[in-house]
Write a structure and sequence with these properties.
This protein is an alpha/beta fold. The protein has helices spanning 13-25, 37-45, 83-90, 102-109, 126-139, 162-170, 214-221, 236-247, 260-269, 303-320, 330-333, and strands spanning 4-8, 30-34, 51-55, 70-75, 94-97, 119-122, 144-154, 175-180, 183-188, 194-197, 204-209, 226-233, 276-287, 290-301, 326-329, 334-339, 342-347, 353-357, 361-364. Helix content is 31%, strand content 33%. The strands form four sheets. The chain has a seven-stranded parallel β-sheet, sandwiched between helices. A seven-stranded mixed β-sheet has the order 10-11-12-7-13-14-19. A three-stranded antiparallel β-sheet has the order 16-17-18. The termini are far apart.
Amino acid sequence: MKKDIVVVGGYGHVGGQICRTLAEKFPGDIYAAGRSLDRAEQFCQSTYGKVKPLELIATSINDWNCLDQTRLVIMCIDQEDTAFARKCMESGIHYVDISANGSFLKKLEQLRNESNIATGVMSVGLAPGLTNLLAQQLKNLFEQTNCINISIMLGLGDSHGKAAIEWTVDNLNSVFEVMENSKLKYVSSFTDGRTTYFGEKLGHREAYRFPFSDQQSLTKTLDVKSVVTRLCFDSRLVTTALHMLRRIGLTKLLSKKSVRPLLVKMLSSIRMGSAQYAVKVDAEGLKAGVESKLGVTLHGENESSITAQVAVAVAISLYSSKLSHGIFHVDQLFELDNDGDILYLRLKETGEQFLISKSCSISYS
């Protein structure tokens, strides 16, 4: 039986955490894969052989033969083409993707129309991922849900991977499409601020539009007319500064090759805040025939760690359970359960629970 788990980008910031966690459950069956065999070997040495190195370029068809004994692939790097994912699904290899890139996930969605003999899960992480599942929790409490607002606060004192920082910088000046009131609309990053209450400890924060893919998928998977996702940082100063730079047009400078690396380096070195993150989801709709508002807040520390933990829970569920074949967003296969500060993924098909974290705080309002 195929038993290998290949983590593409497995020696990176999030991928490394995924490898180490899975290696505790499947020692010797986990491969940290990527373009650099040297980096993979160096990382694997630190795991004392529990994780094995693998040179793999996802865009190179010649490299795909190394997946013959693979049961599951976890993709931790950004892609533009779905050929690798298609190959996995057609070959009976389960596939998990932690990308937050809405345009790429839209391409992945199209694979559901093809002949798949495996299960693929996308929207896996904090946002998208837990944001999808929290939104689903609230939606299930309404007879009719009219709109969902998602606000994400990230800590600047956290250790973010370079890829995550580059993705954030690259989208500071972006224009992206969303569905509002069932109509397609184009909006700009770091505009249209909304004041969100993140709880007693964090208080009120102004968050701004950002192109997280959950707002694009949830209108379809939850059948909600409007979903908006916004971003802020634990430093109000940095959040306000980025909004003002966007407002006066200086974020256009990010298209210049000399400017982008400087901002990436600056954000990588900032340690002026904390390592905490928070997600607040607010929903409006009809509850018992009355117009109502409900909210749920999730707090934790180390955004990259919770992304890895969600990916691990999804991976273990695919590895151990027989699920419907095809490609799905996380909220189409799973629901979120919690017992105090302990978070679980629960499979809709079987009711099985898979641990995510023992240190997240959830409150409802």
